[in-house]
Specification:
- The chain is mainly beta.
- The protein is 8% helix and 33% strand.
- It has four helices and 16 strands.
- This is Bacteriophage phiJL001 Gp84 C-terminal domain-containing protein.
Length: 292
């Protein structure tokens, strides 16, 4: 804690307010304060009268997760209901300070983390805030399994999804219940080419959102894409989307569809249960095949 800030606390007569900064994955930033006037520092404006408050922060010196909750009001000038429903605040970065509103250079960083579960109730929302140690709860390292553990195009896969033939931009021609998209034609791509792939929204009210593709079929003269869950954010006819090829994580797919076998992250030759149960024998070869 800054010595000047500490000295201000020790006076017994303080001019303190709380400020929160939220940065979404799309780069949009928001500033909130429980002070009755708008405050400014670090190039961000912290708006007053936004209805945002926070509960006590539970912190520790170990590796347990610091957590708290923020309560706020939904309004068109701050956090909008449609943005919450679209998932735009999921996983957003959150920073919280205790600030001397008479001199904003005097402040103490109280919390830094991300938004976890976010619930909406009427015209209000409640957001769970998770500290930086939350990331330590995520599994890391290699997994000994036959299918590939990489995500198509990530640092382990290294495949360039921008290669010709593996993605296509199209305007939405027809959409049903935010779940099923139809095109009159989508030439150059085999049936099921986009299954297990991804649909990114490039324009419209749902711009920046994405969904996972469950099925890709041809029915007569129509190409039909089924998503795993309805697309949030109001995807509409005329919006531009990007379809990315899908990968089923098999070695054969990696070799034949993507020509990327050198970066395959699975273990296709993992022994079967029969090999684990193999026993010594006096004649023949112990090949690891069936014991019968």
């Amino acid at each position: 804690m800054d010595e000047r800030f500490k000295s201000h606390l020790q006076t017994g007569i303080t001019t303190l307010a709380r400020c929160w900064a939220i940065r979404r994955a799309d780069g949009q930033e928001y500033g909130f304060t429980d002070h009755d006037q708008t405050l400014r520092f670090d190039g961000l404006e912290f708006k007053a009268d936004t209805g945002l408050t926070a509960l006590a922060v539970e912190q520790s010196t170990g590796l347990s997760v610091d957590n708290t909750e923020a309560l706020g009001a939904i309004s068109d000038v701050s956090v909008r209901a449609k943005d919450i429903e679209a998932g735009r605040f999921d996983g957003a970065e959150v920073t919280a300070w205790l600030v001397n509103w008479a001199d904003t250079d005097l402040r103490w960083l109280q919390f830094r983390g991300t938004i976890g579960e976010l619930r909406r109730t009427g015209n209000a929302f409640q957001a769970e805030l998770r500290g930086l140690t939350e990331a330590l709860n995520q599994p890391t390292g290699r997994i000994f399994q036959k299918p590939c553990t990489a995500v198509l195009g990530d640092g382990a896969c290294r495949f360039d999804t921008n290669e010709p033939g593996y993605s296509v931009e199209r305007e939405v021609e027809a959409i049903e219940d935010g779940l099923v998209l139809r095109w009159k034609e989508l030439p150059g791509f085999e049936p099921h080419w986009f299954e297990r792939g991804r649909l990114n929204v490039l324009s419209g009210s749902a711009k920046g959102l994405w969904g996972l593709i469950k099925r890709d079929v041809i029915d007569g003269d129509e190409r039909i894409i089924h998503l795993w869950e309805p697309m949030r954010g109001g995807l509409q006819v005329g919006d531009t989307v990007l379809l990315l090829a899908g990968c089923d994580k098999r070695m054969e797919t990696c070799r034949l569809k993507f020509n990327n076998l050198l970066n395959f992250q699975g273990f296709p030759d993992i022994p079967t249960e029969d090999w684990v149960m193999a026993v010594p024998k006096q004649s023949g070869r112990n090949t690891g095949g069936s014991l019968r």
